[in-house]
Amino acid sequence: MTDIEQNIERIKQELRSGITLVAVSKTKPTEDILEAYNTGHRDFGENKVQELIYKHETLPEDIRWHLIGHLQTNKVKYIASFVSMIHSVDSMKLLGMINKEAAKHNRIIDCLIQVKIAEEKSKFGISEKELFELLGSDEIKKFKHTCIRGLMGMATFTDSDEQIRKEFKQLKIIFDEVKSRLYKNNSYFSEISMGMSDDYQIALEEGSTIVRIGSNIFGKRVYI
Ligand SMILES: *Cc1c(COP(=O)(O)O)cnc(C)c1O
Q1: 31-76 tens-digit pLDDT
Q2: Is 215 near ligand 1, meaning CB less than 6 Å away?
Q3: Are residues 108 and 146 in contact, defined by beta-carbon separation less than 8 angstroms?
Q4: CA 181 to centroid of ligand 1, rounded, Å
Q5: Does residue 24's CB lie within 6 angstroms of at least one atom of ligand 1?
Q6: Helix, strand, or coil here: 213?
Q7: Tens digits of per-residue pLDDT, 100-159?
Q8: SS3 for 198?
Q9: pTM to 2 decimal places
Q10: Residue 83 in contact with residue 99, Cβ under 8 Å?
Q11: Is 195 in the pocket of ligand 1 (CB under 6 A)?
């Protein structure tokens, strides 16, 4: 077995059933993705639209592609025909565009709302207050081509496990609050996407249902 195959098998053994592993393949060549694919893995994550389009065109049709990075409204049209889940919805404008473009392809696109839980200013995502405004609005009820599946969050980039745990706990609390107030009888609203290579064990302990793991599977990324 190759390193990638071994890594993916090892991580999958750590995950309880019902937890989704998104293998984050950004910057990695299609050969690496195929190695993971050959173990039977089908969920892959990319953060750039250009790269996602190229890999979708090049690789097997049955891969479920997750967009995990910031998405600009004007780029939705390039991925609406095939993207499986968008983890990074952060505005009504973006959600409206996803709905509109999905309709053209007669699809319903699974979406997560990205909530800002980290202290860093650089991180994307909306506040808890904005989240309730967004999900509680009348406008969102008109969207028939998007399905809100849950929330996504990224912890602060820090060595402090305590800080990371606190932020993941906070996302779980927000999720539970949204669920009970707005999605009580909606079984689709069920996912919390949190946890990356360095913090996914903590995320799982705090209630994550989707982990997004890159370097632990494919090795360190080299940015040019
Ligand atoms: C790159 C990335 C990941 C994976 O990061 P690793 O530390 O390599 O596991 C997860 N989520 C998002 C949003 C990313 O951009």
Answers
A1: 999 999 999 999 999 999 999 999 999 999 999 999 999 999 999 9
A2: yes
A3: yes
A4: 30
A5: yes
A6: strand
A7: 999 999 999 999 999 999 988 767 899 999 999 999 999 999 999 999 999 999 999 999
A8: coil
A9: 0.97
A10: no
A11: no
